[in-house]
Amino acid sequence: MAGSSASQQVIRTGGGARFAIYTILLIFCLYYLLPLYVMVVNSLKPLSEITSGGMMSLPKDWTTAPWASAWSTAQVGVEATGLKPYFINSILMVVPAVALSTILGALNGYVLTKWRFRGDTIIFGLLLFGCFIPFQMVLIPMARMLGLMGLAGTVPGLVFVHLVYGIGFSTLYFKNYYQQFPTELVRAAMIDGAGFFTIFRRIMLPASGPIAVVCIIWQFTNIWNDFLFGASFSDFDSQPMTVALNNLVQSSTGVKEYNVHFAGAILAALPTLLVYIVAGRYFVRGLMAGSVKG
Amino acid sequence: MSFLDINNATKSYGAVKVLHETDISVDEGEFLVLVGPSGCGKSTLLNMIAGLEEVTSGDIAIKGRSMTGVKPADRNIAMVFQSYALYPTMNVGQNIAFGLEMHGVPKPDRDKAVDQVSDLLQIGHLLDRKPGQLSGGQRQRVAMGRALVRDPDVFLFDEPLSNLDAKLRVDMRTEIKKLHQKLGTTIVYVTHDQIEALTLSTRIAVMFGGHVQQLGTPKEIYDRPANMFVAGFMGSPSMNLFPANVAEENGQAVAKVALGDGSVVSLPFPERSDMTGQVGREIVLGIRPEAITDPDGADRNSQSVHPVDALVEVTEPAGSDTFVVTHLGGKEVTGRFRADVDVEVGKVFQFAINMEKAVAFDPKSEERISA
Amino acid sequence: MTMTVPKTSARPAKQGGDWLRDAIPKLVLSPSLFIILVFVYGFIFFTFYLSFTDSRILPSHDLVGWLNYERLFKIRGWDIAVVNLLIFGSLYIVICCVLGLLLAILLDQKIRAEGFIRTVYLYPMALSFIVTGIAWKWFLDPGIGLQAVVRSWGWESFTFTWIKDSDMAIYTIVIAAVWQTSGFVMAMFLAGLRGIDNEVMKAAQIDGASTVALYRRIIIPQLRPAFMSAFVVLAHMAIKSYDLIIALTGGGPGTATEMPATFMYSYTFTRNQMGIGAASATIMLMSIAAIMVPYIYSELREKK
Questions:
Q1: Of C191, C190, C225, C192, residue with least CA distance to C298
Q2: Inter-chain contact A268–C135, Cβ cutoff 8 Å?
Q3: For C201, which residue in chain B has the nearest alpha carbon?
Q4: Does residue C56 belong to any structural domain of this protein?
Q5: CB of B269 closer than 8 Å to CB of B371
Q6: Would the CB atoms of A32 and C201 count as touching at under 8 Å?
Q7: Which tens digits make up the pLDDT trace of A184-218?
Q8: Domains of chain A, earliest start first
Q9: What CATH number does residue C154 fall under?
Q10: Is residue C166 part of a domain?
Q11: Which of A139, B72, B233, B349 has the smallest count of CB within 10 Å of its CB?
Q12: Size of interface B-C (CB pairs under 8 A)
């Protein structure tokens, strides 16, 4: 099947048409970049420039004060600690959740594709549907359960929640990936005497690089960006970055420091943006794998 | 001016020349096959005739009208692709009629044309189905129907049988030949299968490395290949090629060939082949397997059958014949014996070589020597 | 059954070993299965059950039948939420698809900086909805955002107060949501376009199809799977929308941009009407199930 572009040799666009195409594409580039521009530019201005209608202009008085404020001195709810402690909360929450859910997803995918048994399709169907439920449906019982487990309002509690609801997706990724993996290799290893875990360690894992990256990136992005679980299950000390950011912006005491808000927003967005820029290819693969052809 | 003229056409991608100066004149009703291994330029040439690729230099003309700058849709051609390229979201009837629709043919005329063609190809009962619901052979017919319905000047086929299984391929080959005989259309057909080339064509262009190695009728290509490539490529099993020396014995030109045991045998050339001018020259002798037989199986009409005692190394009973392998001139040579001849491996046996069918090549230029 | 290899002393070929070998995969899978059964399906049933009780601040076990659902549909806030969801959902899906398809077709034309442009179109997907909400919230704010900027450029009478306007606020959510996900839809269509057989395009060219006819009759119909996937994903995201609304408008002005997700949260945790909250969550679940179950079923069936 011929290479990259469907219209490669077939549709020859003339000069005028190509100009129009590039122009339209460029306009949309501006459309997508505009909010980012607004955030960056306004996080480096003194407040006065913003309130006087200068939101779209470059700073006249460049300053990094908003960033310092957002990070360490801004008023988030009751205390004025800046967003730093909550950034740390997010990291403490994301790393274990991603690691555990990826490992479990890999094992599950391995079982579901190479160790078939009766009913495994149903189990996969159950897992799959679990990915798509509205989380509103589990908020109430989960709040109770966390309380019973003694994890209410703690970072480990959030790790647990994200792990539970991340298993479905990571299993989906690994299952689809392992499905393409030749089963003959597993059978050959079985004949050679290797057991379940040996095969996983020596044969499946080494070949899982690409999908592991996709899974990790996807989980990282989703869990870092989550708000609903954070808002529902954390208390003031354990809230993740997104919740803290929202509190920062919504706090109605005093003057709204828009520049600090924007700096905070960029801080919150940086990790996932960096991951996207560095490993965008895998990010896209994750997006596509999760939605197209399940 | 013939029906389809390819005049000094070349094709280059940047600095890479993939098709060298090519001159072919095709008469109306001819079945021209472009055959050669992958990358020889045959598909490129076909795409240039279709207008899907631009001609770098030279010209292509259909019915005397130059096609330079003419879009594919305006050339009055039709093409059948290797993967059939049927429109997956339309049913068979719509697929066949699509070209007519794009050219503004009104619906009643379209329907009539579709019916005619589907009757001819016996796919009338498939008109409402989608390509995904058809078998390979059925899809092939629909692809041909789509081409036929346009009633074009030239039909182009791009390896249409490659995706079919062996038996279906043979059946469809016969179908295509019957259609050609019935409709008398002008066809340019690309394939890498030399059997298709030999059976279907009125003329063959054997291509390799962007050059036309030989242009001729199947018989010319088969019996008098222009060079060693054509000799080896056409015919299955391929022509035996082995070194020999031209000498003179008893006033006759002979080819002196070394046998496996060190002895040398003299194979006299037929009188009319006029090899006397080549005495002293080293050549490569080409003889097809069917010209190396058991003595009773040799061509009775030939006056140049000569016996050679050689060691039988391998026998391959193939049902209708038995292929026997020995060594001549240091090269492995295959002969074709009748099936019920009693041949034993490891024993010396008398082979009959029909020198009327022999061809001589120059070892360096690889071209055929003499007429 | 097992191949006994004399050299290696490995496993004794007794029945216990075989049982264990068969059981290990299931054992490995079982924690995840247990988790899913309890924390997904168990919880779903619990919430479902709660919707039939008169729970307020805390869950109660007094069943009241369909009362919560009846009351739900009489609450004005719920009406607004449902209508908002329909307006938002349809605009969101349609605009994303049209925009995504347009950009994909343009990008498919052998564009020089294609990789860069794709990166730009897709980066919003990497952002949290909170971040997106904040960016657009202030950009659309009449006091400091677009209206203020345009006025400061000289056009004194320019007004853009949608975000503060009860009738128009929902459209600001559409703007922000489309900005976030249209790149993703574009990526899906682009992948679909690239999967189309090149020979079909050549055949169409020979048949005489103009560029417009080529797209309308041949290319776009082949994108049906991509449309289906896009629809399912977008509908699913629309129903679950919560973060964006909280950040962008907080559900306001007043309850003008209330959606089922925000409704559920406020009724359960702020207004202490757990029963009604549970009922609204159940309705959300049912609507997602109506879309997802047929989709998942057809995907799984195709696998076999």
A1: C225
A2: no
A3: B85
A4: no
A5: no
A6: no
A7: 888 888 888 888 888 898 888 888 988 899 899 98
A8: 15-72 (no CATH), 84-291 (1.10.3720.10)
A9: 1.10.3720.10
A10: yes
A11: B349
A12: 63
Task: Establish if B81 touches chain C: CB-CB under 8 angstroms.
Answer: yes
Which candidate from C197, C202, C213 shows the least CB-CB separation from B102? C213
Q: Which overall architecture, per CATH, does domain B240-361 show? A: Beta Barrel (2.40)
CA nearest to B144, candidates B110, B185, B198? B185
B89–C221 C-beta distance less than 8 A:
yes
**How far, CA to CA in Å, does A186 sit from each of B57, B310, C2?**
56, 52, 15
* C179 contacts A35? CB cut-off 8 A: yes
> In the block, which residue shows the tokens 């960016």?
C135
Q: Does B3 touch chain C (CB under 8 A)?
A: no
Write down the H helix ranges in A155-292. 155-179, 183-191, 196-199, 209-225, 228-233, 241-250, 258-291
* Domain parsing of chain B, residue ranges: 4-233, 240-361
Convert B60-124 into a string of H (helix), E (strand) and C (coil): EEECCEECCCCCHHHCCEEEECCCCCCCCCCCHHHHHHHHHHHCCCCHHHHHHHHHHHHHHCCCH
| Shortest Cα–Cα distance, A232 to chain C (Å) | 9
CATH class of B4-233: alpha beta
The whole-model pTM stands at: 0.81
DSSP one-letter code for A239: -
- How does DSSP classify residue A200? I
Q: Is residue C26 part of a domain?
A: no
- Quick check: B87 and C206 CB within 8 A? no
Domain count along chain C: 1
pLDDT tens for each residue of chain C, 304 residues long: 455 445 444 444 445 566 777 788 888 888 888 999 999 999 999 999 999 988 888 888 888 888 889 888 888 889 999 999 999 999 999 999 999 999 999 998 888 888 899 999 999 999 999 999 999 998 898 888 888 888 888 888 888 888 888 888 999 999 999 999 999 999 999 988 988 888 898 999 899 888 888 999 999 999 988 898 899 889 989 998 899 999 998 887 888 899 999 999 999 988 888 899 999 999 999 998 898 888 877 776 765 4
In sequence order, the 6+-apart residues with CB closer than 8 A to the CB of B279 are: B246, B247, B248, B253
